[in-house]
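In the previous chapter we treated chains in isolation. Here, by contrast, the input contains two separate entities that must be folded as one system, with a combined length of 491 residues.
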Amino acid sequence: MTSGTVEIVRPGTLTTIQDDGRPGLARLGVSPSGACDRPAYHLANRLVGNAPNAAALEVTVGGLVARFSHSCWVAVTGAPAPVVSAGRACAPYGPVFVPAGGELQIGVPAAGLRSYLAVRGGIAVPPVLGSRSTDTLTGIGPAPLQAGQILPIGDTAAGPVAPVDLVPVAPLPQEPVIEFQPLRRPGWFADNALDALRDNYRVSPDTNRIGMRLQGNVIERARQDELPSEGHVAGTIQIPPSGQPVIFLADHPVTGGYPVLGVVRARSLPLLAQARPGQRLRLRVT
Amino acid sequence: MTLRLLPYGERALLIEVADHHEALALYDDIRRDPPAGVVDLVSAAASVLVVFEDEETAGAASRTLRTRTVPRVDRAVGDLVEVPACYDGADLGEVAASIGMSVEEVVRRHETAEYVVAFVGFAPGFAYLTGLDPALHMPRRSVPRTRVPAGSIAMADEYTAIYPQESPGGWRLLGHTRLGMWDLDRQPPALLQPGMRVRFRRVTR
């Protein structure tokens, strides 16, 4: 049985295919990758009855237009974007029906950066190293989507479409507070380094799936040399010689050598994934 | 000596050791007998990062790992990979001149050593090989190249490596190999993994 295809009419600024990524391959030099806002991605899949790790689309600042060959159920979560299915305005955070041949438009979100479009059955491109995620650092996995591209839709779902019109989610904060756990390794930062965090930071335009640069008070290092290369995770906050923090996201390099201030708590990672360039955020030790 | 564990966020533990020999031995040891909930292990220059599913498994493992010790370093046990090397790199002349050796001597010293993959990073399949003759240690170029071809054999500081794909790079180019370092159709795609031994064999092309 075929579940049809979805044609990318317009990909927007950056739309990639994402799932739970490729954890466990550091020995090959491969980053975990995967959806940046994991809870939003899982929710989109649950709404259409998919397994939580079915491949979906990560749409950066909206602008996606897609046409479906067959009728199907979809859901949009993450950055709250206006959704139009075959000319009819629909709410994000709920299952949306798209008729056969219908066009789905995801507009520019009022807040946040990344919206997730799950399609019932999942996006069925061939996996690479066990995942369908695009790794923008290494180029592993499918390339970012292009206009005219046609993607196969899978024919297996885990359960029924969620019997809800929409699910309530907390609105994204204007100025998110990013909680992190400091790395207790003496010697690398000035004694008063954390005082810099009294003011907020601005998210730099130089921000992508690999990492986010912040602009604000300089975090004083106690020494200017580099560490011997060591492993990283999504959420590692490293301080390059400029003193301006860099926080790694899903496509982070496996190892690196700048001193590490701390690691973002799991509950703050989704907020980080939704922080837009130009937006302000606070770093808080917890 | 018992392990020095540093909580690295909620879901990981960083274990700092003396050098890459200890890191590799510890990496091997944890890989063979991992605590519950390990999702990834990153062996690096002087540390092993152990990444867990969640805060609970990380917490439990921090108690059990604390009782382990850095295993005895057992050198040169990994599989041996022979890499055909054509020493025609763009930086050979400059390297030789700046350390006051002939090009032939640089090549001889690079070719006769046996190397061990200390860790993999920078790019998929990019293996940091240790065992480089100390006389050849040189910092990376002050201005990196925007394009280094796949298969380039290069060195920087105490490491030598082979670029698996074309990429920018600041290492000093000594030559090239036709042996593929990274191939997604191969299982596993990376030819070199931590602990493996590497020898270069001189070829003319």
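Residues 17 and 46 of chain B are 5 Å apart (CA to CA). The radius of gyration of chain B is 19 Å. Compare these points with the single-chain example from earlier in the chapter.
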